[in-house]
Amino acid sequence: MQSDVAWRRLRELILDGTYPPGARLTEMEAAAALDMSRTPVREALRALTADGLVRPSGRGVVVVALEPGDLDEAYQVRSALESLTAELAATRQREGRIAPADLVTLRDVATDTANATADGRLAEAVVLNRRFHRLIAELAANTMALHALERIWDQIQVSTLRSLAPPSRPAHVSGQHEELLAAIAGGRAEEAARIARAHVLDTRAITHSEEDRA
Question: Mind telling me which Pfam families this protein's record contains (predicted)?
Answer without folding.
Answer: FCD, GntR
